[in-house]
Structures are given as C-alpha cells and as structure tokens.
Amino acid sequence: MSHRDIERVLAGELSYDTLADPEQAVVRTAWDGRIDAARKALDLEAEFKAAGETWSESDAGGSVVTRAAESDR
Questions:
Q1: pTM of the predicted model as reported, rounded to 2 decimal places
Q2: HEC profile for 23-47?
Q3: How far is residue 1's CA from residue 22's CA, in Å, rounded to a whole number?
Q4: Which DSSP state fits 48?
C-alpha cells in the first residue's frame, strides 16, 4: 500500500483511479470523514437568517415547514 499515493490523492495531486482497490478504500474512508465533519459544521439556519432568506425543511412528522429569517423557531 502506498501511503504517499494516498496522500497525493487526498491533496488533489493524483487521480483516485490510479490507486489499487485497497488504497481506494483508504481514500474513501478519509473522504467520508471529511464529508461528515463538513456536514456537522454546517449551520444553514444561521446562514439563511443572516442572509434574510426564507427556507423550507421537514418537521419531525415529515411535513414541509417554511421558515422566515425573522422567525424564532
């Protein structure tokens, strides 16, 4: 397993497709971690409110609810 090639793929310097299956699995695991961390850092409600935007989301029952920037959820 080439750790150097894995790091190069993660840095965007080498194509994912050049890696063998085991290295690709390591890269996918790293990508999953990065995506999960980025998703957890999102606060779209705060961003929409700051931009004065209205947005829609589903409530606990699955019904669509429209929110306004000035509303207090």
A1: 0.67
A2: HHHHHHHHHHHHHHHHHHHCCHHHH
A3: 7
A4: H
Amino acid letter, residue 62: G
58 forms bridges with which residues in the sheet? Answer: 64
Q: Show pLDDT as tens, one digit a residue, over the chain (73 residues).
A: 899 999 999 999 999 999 999 999 999 999 999 999 999 999 999 999 999 999 999 999 999 999 998 755 4
Delimit the domains of the chain by residue range: 1-42, 43-73
CA angle (36 as vertex; 34, 42 as ends), nearest 5: 105
Among 44, 56, 57, 51, CA closest to 70: 51
| Cα 72 from Cα 47, distance rounded (Å) | 14
- Tokens in use for 46? 């705060």
Tokens of 28: 């996918």
Amino acid at the residue 5: D
